[in-house]
């Protein structure tokens, strides 16, 4: 049975990877959309991953409202960042570990690949 992975997991994992690679603190909506397509494309070619990654603009907006205690949207430059009261450890605590292990490890690995190549 497929696991549905919400946009909040994609947002969190991209922001975690960006911070770990010391690249930047934000991701634009366009970059996030590109990340969602990248993740979904690679999951379809991996027979061990039975997951659907929810990364449409509607799901991103919903995630931003539902998890406003973790993420904030900057309308001026169209980017998402971690709220000032949270840090990487908070994101890891909340968004790492609630998915099946194979889906989680795939998401972390493929998100890091995306950030290294594209951001």
Number of helices: 5
Distance between the termini: 33 Å
The name of the CATH architecture is Orthogonal Bundle
User: Which value, in Å, is the CA radius of gyration?
Assistant: 13 Å
CATH topology, by name, is: Arc Repressor Mutant, subunit A
Search tags:
two-stranded parallel sheet; 55% helix; Arc Repressor Mutant, subunit A; 3-stranded antiparallel sheet
Description:
The chain has 119 residues and is an alpha+beta fold. The chain has one domain (3-114): Arc Repressor Mutant, subunit A, CATH 1.10.10. Helices cover 55% and strands 14% of the residues. The protein is built from five helices and five strands, in the order E-H-E-H-E-H-E-E-H-H. It has helices spanning 7-20, 29-44, 57-66, 88-95, 101-118; strands at residues 3-5, 26-28, 51-53, 71-74, 79-82. The strands form two sheets. Strands 2-5-4 form a three-stranded antiparallel β-sheet. The protein has a two-stranded parallel ribbon with strand order 1-3. Strand 4 and strand 5 form a beta hairpin. Helix 1 packs antiparallel against helix 4 (88-95). The longest helix has 18 residues, at 101-118. The radius of gyration is 13 Å and the shape is globular. The mean pLDDT is 92.
Kindly summarize this structure in a few lines.
Helix content is 55%, strand content 14%. The protein has 119 residues and is of the alpha+beta class.
Question: Topology, pairings included?
Answer:
Layout: E1 3-5, H1 7-20, E2 26-28, H2 29-44, E3 51-53, H3 57-66, E4 71-74, E5 79-82, H4 88-95, H5 101-118
Parallel strand pairs: 1-3
Antiparallel strand pairs: 2-5, 4-5
Helix pairs in contact: 1-4, 1-5, 2-5
